[in-house]
C-alpha cells in the first residue's frame, strides 16, 4: 500500500468519527468533550508523524501503527452508534465514550487521589515483597540447608492466592493499609523467592569453578557470580510479581480498603455510575501498562549482555 | 631452568589415587598411584582415551577435587582447594556472560581486590591476545576463538605460576586451533609459566609439549612419558613429528606397526 494512504489512515478514521458525531442525533445530551479529545489526539499524531521524518526507522514505526489507529477509530464509532446513537446496548451498563471521558473532567480530583493511593499501596507492598523475596531466594539458592527447611514453606504458602487472606487480615491487622501492604508483599514474595532461587540454583557450575581458581571468596561467588547469573530469572519474578500484586491490590481495595481505584470502582458501581467504572478501568490499564513497560526498559538496560527473548 | 629461587611453579604429584564412589558397591577408580613431577616452566600434556583420568588429574591440581590417596604439591606446599596461583581454562570458555571482555579479563584482579582503575594491566592482557577494540563487547558477540582468547587473558591477568588447560582448543575449528596453539606457545614462552594441558589431539600434544604423559583407563594410570626433544618452532609435518605420533598411537594400541610408517603418510 502506498505510504501516503497509510499516513492518512488516522485522519480518515477521525473523519468517520466526526461525521458520526455531528450527523446522527444523540440520545443523551452532548458535552462536546469528544471533539476536543479527538482533535488533541490528531494534533499529537501529526506532531509525531512530522518528527518521524528524521529517520526512516521511525517513519516505519508510524506506518506500522496507522492501520491499528484506523481500526480503533472504527471500533469507537461502532461503540458510539451501539450506545448513545441507537441505544442497542442498554444503559446504564454500557456507557458512551463521551460519558466515560466526561468523568476525567468532572471527577479528576477523586480519581487522581484514588490513583495516588493505589500507587502508594502497590509500590510499598511490591518493594517489600521483592526485597524479602530476593533475600529468601538467595538463601534458598545458596544454602542447601535453607533450601531443605524453607522451600517446603514457600511451596505450601506460595500457590495460595494472597486474596484469600483478606478476611483474616481485616481482623488481625491494626490498619487496612498495613494489611494490604502485607498481602501484596506476600503475593510478590512467592514468585520473587522462587525465581531468584531457581536462577541461582541453575547457575552453571563452571562459573563458580572458574571464579574460585581466579581467587574469588564466597562473597564474590554470591554477589558477582550467582546473583548476576540469576538476573534474567529474577526479572521474570519481577514481572510475575507485578502481575499478582496488581490483582491483589485491586481485590484488597474492593473488599476492605477505603481508598484507591478498587474502592472507587466498588463505590461507583454501588451508585450505578458505570461510566465511572469504565473510566477507572481505563486508568488502571494505562497505569499498569506504563509500569510493566518501565520494568521492561530497566530489564533491557540491566541485561544488555543477554540476547532478549521476550519483548514488550 | 635455572636454580634461581624466584623460578617457581613446580608441581609434584605423589602416588595420587582418586576413587569416585556413587555407593559402596559401585566404586570408580579414576586414578591409581599416579606419580609425576612437572618442572617450573615446563609444558606437559596429558593424552589418552576418555576415562583415563586426565581431566580428573587436572582438576586435582586445580584443587577442584581432593585426592583419595597421595599428595599434590605446588613448590613443596600441599594443594588445598583452588588458588589464583593455578589458573584454569576449560574447553568451554566459560566467560561470565554479564561482563564485557574488559570485565572478564579484570575479574581475577577484582576478585582478589587488586583491581586498580588507573593501571592499564587489563588493557595489556587484552592487547596480548589481540582483542583491542573489543573491550566493551559481551561474550555472546564473540566467536569461539575470540572467547577462548579472552578466557586465556582472564587466567593470565592473575599472573599464575601454573596454567591448567582442559582441552582448551577442542571446540574450535582446525585453523583457529592451530592459530591458538601458536598464540599459546608465544605467551607461554614470554611468561615462563608452568603449563599442564589435557588434550585429545595427539598432534597438538606433540606440537606444544616438552613432555607428553600417556595415560590409559581402568584404572586411570600413566602408561608412558615421552620427551619431545625437537626444538621450537616445530614443523607440523617433519619426520620426528610423525615418528612420535606413531609411538603414541602404539602405546595407546591404536597403531598397527611402527615400521609401517607409510600407513600414516
Walkthrough of the structure:
The complex is a heterodimer of chains A (312) and B (265). With 312 residues, chain A is mainly alpha-helical. Chain A has 2 domains: 3-91, no CATH class; 108-302, MetI-like (MetI-like fold, Orthogonal Bundle). Helices cover 79% and strands 0% of the residues of chain A. The longest helix of chain A is centred in the last third of the chain and has 38 residues, at 218-255. Chain A starts with a helix and ends in a 10-residue tail after the last helix. In chain A, 35% of the residues are buried. The mean pLDDT of chain A is 91. With 265 residues, chain B is of the alpha/beta class. Chain B has helices at residues 54-62, 101-111, 121-128, 144-156, 174-191, 202-208, 239-251; strands at residues 11-23, 26-38, 43-47, 69-74, 77-78, 86-89, 162-166, 194-198, 211-216, 221-227. Chain B has a 6-stranded mixed sheet with strand order 6-7-8-3-9-10, sandwiched between helices. The longest helix of chain B is centred in the last third of the chain and has 18 residues, at 174-191. Chain B has 2 domains: 11-200, P-loop containing nucleotide triphosphate hydrolases (Rossmann fold), CATH 3.40.50.300; 230-265, no CATH class. In chain B, helix 2 (101-111) packs across helix 3, helix 2 (101-111) runs parallel beside helix 4 and helix 6 crosses helix 7 (239-251). Chain B contains 7 helices and 10 strands. Mean pLDDT of chain B is 87; it is low at 1-5. The chains are: A mainly alpha (312), B alpha/beta (265). The A-B interface holds A 204, 206-207, 209-217, 220, 224-225, 228-229, 231, 303-307 and B 62-64, 81-84, 86-88, 90, 92, 94, 96-100, 107-108, 110-112, 138-140, 154-155, 158, 164.
